[in-house]
Amino acid sequence: MKLTIKRINRFCLILCAPFIGFVIWLMAADKSITLPDSAFPKLALPQVNVPSDLEKLTSGLDQAKQTALVTAKSLKKSIGIYSTTGKSMDAIVSITIAQADRPYRIYDRRITRKIGAPAQQIESGNVRAQLFTIHAQHFNGYALKVLLKTPKSMKMVLGHDKSGGAETTLAAAKRYQAIAGVNAGGFADDGGKRYPLSTTVMNGKYLNGFDPSFKDLFFVGLNDKLKLIGGKYRSKAHLDREKPRFGASFVPVLLQGGVPQPIPDRWRLSPLRAPRTVIANYKDNQLLFLVIDGRNENGSSGATLMEAQLLLQRYGAVDGYNLDGGGSSTLVFNGRVVNHPSDGKPRPVPTHFLFFK
Fold first, then answer.
1. pTM for the full predicted model
2. Which Pfam families did the record assign (predicted)?
3. Is the C-alpha dihedral spanning 309, 311, 313, 318 positive or negative?
4. For the chain, which residues make up each domain, given as ranges?
C-alpha cells in the first residue's frame, strides 16, 4: 500500500516537473505574461465628474437662495404697498363719505339757524329729535325737528291700541316708551268713544276703509321710505300709489311746495286764534312739528293759520298740514308735556305720532 502511494507521488511529480521548471525560468528571466483584452469582458461603468456636479449643485442652491431672497423682498414690498393702499383707500372712503354728507350738514345748519338754538336734543342710531322754543307777538310755542334714521324711529298709535279708544299723548308715549310724541289727526265723538276722522292708515292698512277727500279734508302720513306724504286723494288707488305706512286726516292744507295754500274762511276765522299743531317737512325729509299754546279757544290767544303758514315759510319747510288743535295740541318730549294744553291738562285723543330712540 505504501509502495503504491509513493509510486503515484513520483508519477505526479514527474508530470509537474516541466511546468515547475518553466515557472522558475520565467522568474529568473524577469519575464511577464500579457493576456489579450478579449480575455476580460468589458463593463459599461458611468463616468461621474464629481467636482463638476458638486459645483453645479452648489451653484443651483445659491441661485435658489438668491431667488428666495428676492421673492421675500418682493412679498414684503407688496404687503407694504397693500397696507399703504388699504389705509389710503380707507382715507379716501372717509373723505368721500364726509364730502357726500357735507351738503346735508350745510342744509341742516341753515334750516336749524332759522328756528334758533335747540333747547334740548335726543339722538341715537334711530332718531335725532331737537326741541326749540317759539316766542311771537301773540303766542308762544314749540318746534320739534326730527330726523328719522330707521323705520323704527316713528309710528302712529291708537288710543289704548283700539278703534274708539282715546288717551293722552303723554300716556301713549309712556306706554310705548317713546322719547317724544305729538297729537295727530282729528276725531269724532260717538257714544263715549272717539274715532279717528276720515281716512286713517295703521301699519299699511286702512283702519275703517278709504274715504275720498271732500271739502277741506286731507290725509297726511309717512310712506314706506319715511317720507311725508299728504294732500287730497280722490281714490284709494291714488293713495295706494304713495304706499302709506300710517297717517291721519284733518283740515286744512297749509303749504305745498313752499307755497301757502288758500285757507277757507270757515277755518281762517273760527276761531281766529287758537292752539295749533302742525306737521311739515324739509327737502331732506326731516320733519317739523309746531305746537302753539293758547289760553282758550275763544280767539284771545294762540296763532292764526296764516301765522302758522308764515312760520313754516320762515323755517324753510316745503309742505305743511294743520293737525288737530285746541285742547288736543300736545307735545311730549323726554317724558313730560312741554307745552301748556288749553284745557289745563292733556286731552285724550285717538291718534298719536310717537318717536323712538
1. 0.74
2. NAGPA
3. negative
4. 125-346
